[in-house]
């Protein structure tokens, strides 16, 4: 009874197609009715005696089956539904944009082998923990560059990160504010929520002022690529300016696990299109019946009949 009470059509406007179907079927029935043709000419009392052997056929005609197929097809397209199911994206991990600093300071060897290499190692661990989640990559130094928009293929993200080096960056410097703004804009364009992860070893003073004037629509996390004994300095100022979480690099995977939990929790939204629950359409169950009816039109002489 609950299913019956919940029964409805997702696109009920398609049911209007039933009106022309019924009208065409009725007109065809009248046109093929022998009695109707002569009723205006011959006295009805004599008509039934004169049209011997011309009674209306009571068998199933192609027109009747065509009407049935039309009705079934219209109901299927209208989207009959009575059961709610979760969206296939409801439990998916939200996307993340990785903002990676690629400057000569990242070639420092105090995080063996270098800070940039350690960033790649941490990125590899993070992609493993968030397998299947869409991840994008932005590289920045004196300018910001989109390397890859969010993709669920983590191996591509890692391969491109390995190809980055300070030597190929076209401009030296620190463009953290623009890099974060670019990441935020890309996530906004996908409309699936998400978070920003900054992987850097420092932040320039002028960037802190610019970050303070930046309003992000997605949460940010900063992974400080520095040895534990070094003061994060300006990264703490960047943390406050972005209202982000600052995570220190560790020798084990605890830092990556902390970042993964942050990305999965803070970047999730359930009110965007495609999230939450939706009605499960059952119109496809009518497809076999439509196929069987269609097969009759391949029968020799069927349409002529």
From TrEMBL:
The VWFA domain, residue ranges:
97-202
Q: Which InterPro entries does this one have? A: UPF0353/GerABKA_families, VWF_A, vWFA_dom_sf
Q: Which residues form a coiled coil?
A: none
Q: Where are the transmembrane segments?
A: none
Superkingdom is: Bacteria
Query: What PANTHER family does UniProt report for this protein, alphabetically?
Result: SPORE GERMINATION PROTEIN, VWFA DOMAIN-CONTAINING PROTEIN
- The identity of this protein, by name, is VWFA domain-containing protein
Q: Give the originating organism.
A: Methylobacterium oxalidis
């Amino acid at each position: 009874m609950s299913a019956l009470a919940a029964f409805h059509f997702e696109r009920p406007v398609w049911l209007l197609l039933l009106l022309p179907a019924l009208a065409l079927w009725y007109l065809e029935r009248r046109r093929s009715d022998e009695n109707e043709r002569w009723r205006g000419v011959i006295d009805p009392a004599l008509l039934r005696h004169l049209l011997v052997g011309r009674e209306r056929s009571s068998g199933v005609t192609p027109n009747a089956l065509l009407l049935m197929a039309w009705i079934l097809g219209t109901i299927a397209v209208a989207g009959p539904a009575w059961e709610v199911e979760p969206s296939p994206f409801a439990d998916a991990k939200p996307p993340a944009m990785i903002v990676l600093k690629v400057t000569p300071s990242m070639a420092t060897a105090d995080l063996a082998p270098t800070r940039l290499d350690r960033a790649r190692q941490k990125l590899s661990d993070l992609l493993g923990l968030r397998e299947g989640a869409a991840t994008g990559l932005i590289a920045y130094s004196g300018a910001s560059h989109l390397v890859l928009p969010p993709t669920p293929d983590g191996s591509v993200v890692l391969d491109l990160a390995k190809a980055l080096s300070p030597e190929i960056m076209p401009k030296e410097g620190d463009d953290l504010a623009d890099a974060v703004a670019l990441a935020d804009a890309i996530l906004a364009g996908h409309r699936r929520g998400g978070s920003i992860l900054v992987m850097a070893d420092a932040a320039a003073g002028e960037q802190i002022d610019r970050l303070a004037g930046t309003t992000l629509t997605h949460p940010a996390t900063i992974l400080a690529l520095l040895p534990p004994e070094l003061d994060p300095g300006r990264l703490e100022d960047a943390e406050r300016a972005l209202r982000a979480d600052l995570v220190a690099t560790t020798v084990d995977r605890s830092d990556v696990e902390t970042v993964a939990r942050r990305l999965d929790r803070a970047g999730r939204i359930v009110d965007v299109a495609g999230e939450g629950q939706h009605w499960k359409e059952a119109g496809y169950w009518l497809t076999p019946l439509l196929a069987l009816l269609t097969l009759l039109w391949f029968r020799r002489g069927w349409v002529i009949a």
